[in-house]
Amino acid sequence: MFIFAPLLLATLVYGSAFNPTLDKRATCTVASAGNSGTDDVPAVVSAIKSCGNGGVIIFSAGKTYAIGSTLDITGCVNCQIQIEGTLKLSNDTGYWEGKRTVVYINGISGATITTTSGAGVFDGNGLPYWQVFNANSSYARPTLVYINNSKNINITKLRFKNAPNVFHSVTGGSSNVVYDTLTLDATPENGVTPKNTDGFDVGQSQYVTIKNIKVTNQDDCVAFKPGADFTTVTNITCTGSHGISVGSLGGGAGSTDTVTNVYVTKATMVNSTKAVGIKLYQGGSSHGIATVRNVTFDGVTVQGCGYAAQIQSCYGSASTADCNSAPSQSTVDAVYFKNFSGATSTEYDPVIADLDCPAAGTCNIYFSNFNIKSPSGKANVLCSNVDSNMGLPCSGSASG
User: Fold this and answer.
1) Would you say 68 and 41 are in contact if contact means Cβ atoms under 8 Å apart?
2) Using CA atoms, how far apart are residues 366 and 354, in angstroms rounded to an integer?
3) Contact of 173 with 131, CB cutoff 8 Å
4) Helices and strands (DSSP H and E) totals, the chain
5) 168 is a catalytic site residue
6) Signal peptide: which range, if any (predicted)?
7) Strands 143-148 vs 168-171: parallel, antiparallel or unpaired
8) Which of 32, 46, 44 has its CA nearest to residue 70?
9) Which domains does the chain have, with CATH numbers?
10) What element of type H or E holds 296?
11) Cis peptide leading into 248, omega within 30 of 0?
């Protein structure tokens, strides 16, 4: 159920209906059933129907709202969804198997999801989903928030915790999407380590901005997927992740994946498998060809990561011989690694970077002010198939 309290009615009551300076946005406050076994999504949908056209939908402070079915915000047109309490995913792993997403933002033009108090939380209730997945890796878990074919979307100031799978995905030709001042964390619980909890998967889209973000997870912090174009990441801290990654790309037979015009700056990478990198599949009929062009990593601080930078052109294969028989034909062009500082972990010491470029493709990469050391004080860089004068000396051949 919901409480419908349009501001226009309030102004009529208080005799201010004709004051042109007042904002007449309708407001609906969603009432929680207060029962974890009850699905509050129908109440949310009703509120959107009443107040979604330019209005405000409020989740009250101090309340927990049960999300037991997909929350599709269709009908939200230039609306604001204001989360002051907690939205929590149900325990129903059977229902959620195979569902694409928990929150579906599809075909929306103009929406803001935020909190004014700073207390808003979206709890993905990850543990039961991680447990099922650990026992059965074919179990298909939902993304927490999925943006598809939408524009002018703002998600700000919220905390997202314990996603069952990926936290945020944007794709389907979406544009002008902003993620700002968010905290994402997936914390191991009861001895269960979360898997595939990417912070942000940016697919087919233009002008996506990710800024002022903290992510603690166990997979990619940010992944630029096929079709990502004009993506900016600024002021992000990633802890425990697989790093900030282009890819993986070229995994599908006959695919022609592209990632273009990406700029990452002011990234602090803590205890990650790598700080930044590119993941490409090998060549051959079972894979495709990728193009990565005009990508810049600038101002990256490395704290205890395996590699500061990594390029893989045989991603996902355990056989070097197989990769050699079908080398990648992908293009890596105008990729810049600038103003790096800090130290890697002991994992690959004395190697700080492993750059295995496509053997049958193109690789133009450039390093400047790359001030990274391993714990031993050395800074060895492994590289293969680099076509440009990359600005760093190579200590041997790369792999991967």
Assistant:
1) yes
2) 14
3) no
4) 5, 28
5) no
6) 1-17
7) parallel
8) 44
9) 1-205 (2.160.20.10), 220-400 (2.160.20.10)
10) strand 289-305
11) yes
pLDDT in tens, the chain (400 residues): 444 443 333 322 223 333 333 357 899 999 887 766 789 999 999 999 999 999 999 999 999 999 999 999 999 999 999 999 999 999 999 999 999 999 999 999 999 999 999 999 999 999 999 999 999 999 999 999 999 999 999 999 999 999 999 999 999 999 999 999 999 999 999 999 999 999 999 999 999 999 999 999 999 999 999 999 999 999 999 999 999 999 999 999 999 999 999 999 999 999 999 999 999 999 999 999 999 999 999 999 999 999 999 999 999 876 778 888 899 999 999 999 999 999 999 999 999 999 999 999 999 999 999 999 999 999 999 999 999 999 999 999 998 8
Buried b (16+ CB within 10 A) or exposed e, 331-368: bbbebbbbbbebbbbeebbebbbbbbbbbebbbbbbbe
Reported residue count of the chain is 400
CA–chain centroid gap for 248, Å, is: 14
Distance CA 64, CA 400 (A): 46
From 151, 157, 225, 242, active-site residue: 242
Residue type at position 285: S
Amino acid identity of 363? C
